Amino acid sequence: MVTTAPVLVGVLAVQGDVREHVAALERSGAAVRRVRRPEELEGLDGLVVPGGESTTIDRLARIFGLHEPVRALVRAGLPVYGSCAGMIQLADQILDGHAEQQTFGGIDMTVRRNAFGRQVDSFEAGLVVPALLEPERPFPAVFIRAPRVEHHGPGVQVLARVDDAVVAVRQGNLLATSFHPEVSGDDRVHQLFVRICCAHHAAVRPTVATAS
Ligand SMILES: NC(=O)CC[C@H](N)C(=O)O
């Protein structure tokens, strides 16, 4: 029998719906660590930037000394998944951000904050997402003051749209959704991310498989 340890995925825990992501990742087979300090980034196979308020996540990440180390890990190829405010944090450019707002960047896209307008601040949509397991089953996507991708470069793969709006993307090991899969009771987005983390782990860490 070959035994392998589960991948270790961090959840940036400065603000936002951290607990729901921790639970969804654990259900998807990952070991999870909440990250509030730079040293807690060490040894991770992936990182989730949760939804919440991107201006607050940005400000606290900089105060806690996490901004530069997370930027460096993104550029070094660590798998990172950003949901809603987390998607904003992974965008190279943002529209309707605060004047001094910064992002980790990494995905060659321009994201507009709060793009779906006040009258539909929150809504749910059944999305067709071919990249997920059982793609014929629509994903119950919950949008809460959600951003949308306005422009993206050729290296960015579009995973889902609502009408014409791009709401889920992947670029290499970086994954981002406008919506909140952690509150939907459907773990297929987290399962996709854990698979990306497993592939990265296998590529960068020598396998210590014990045969018995
Ligand atoms: N649910 C969310 O994460 C909302 C994101 C929020 N509108 C922002 O700009 O950060």
Automatic annotation (TrEMBL):
The reaction(s) catalysed by this protein are:
aldehydo-D-ribose 5-phosphate + D-glyceraldehyde 3-phosphate + L-glutamine = pyridoxal 5'-phosphate + L-glutamate + phosphate + 3 H2O + H(+); L-glutamine + H2O = L-glutamate + NH4(+)
Give an example GO cellular component term for this record. Answer: cytosol
A molecular function (GO) held by this record is: pyridoxal 5'-phosphate synthase (glutamine hydrolysing) activity
In its keyword annotation, does this UniProt entry include Flavoprotein?
no
Pfam families recorded for this chain?
Answer: SNO
Q: Which residues form the signal peptide?
A: none
Q: Which residues cross the membrane?
A: none
Q: Decide whether keyword Hydrolase is in the record.
A: yes
Q: Which UniProt keywords apply?
A: Glutamine amidotransferase, Hydrolase, Lyase, Pyridoxal phosphate
Query: So what EC number does this one have?
Result: 4.3.3.6, 3.5.1.2
Cross-referenced InterPro entries: Class_I_gatase-like, PdxT/SNO, PdxT/SNO_CS
Q: Residues that bind L-glutamine, according to the entry?
A: 52-54, 113, 144-145
Q: Where is the active site?
A: 84 (nucleophile), 180 (charge relay system), 182 (charge relay system)
Which family does the record assign?
Answer: Belongs to the glutaminase PdxT/SNO family.
Subunit composition?
In the presence of PdxS, forms a dodecamer of heterodimers. Only shows activity in the heterodimer.
What job does the chain carry out? Catalyzes the hydrolysis of glutamine to glutamate and ammonia as part of the biosynthesis of pyridoxal 5'-phosphate. The resulting ammonia molecule is channeled to the active site of PdxS.
What's the protein here called? Pyridoxal 5'-phosphate synthase subunit PdxT
Q: What is the lineage of its organism?
A: Bacteria, Bacillati, Actinomycetota, Actinomycetes, Micrococcales
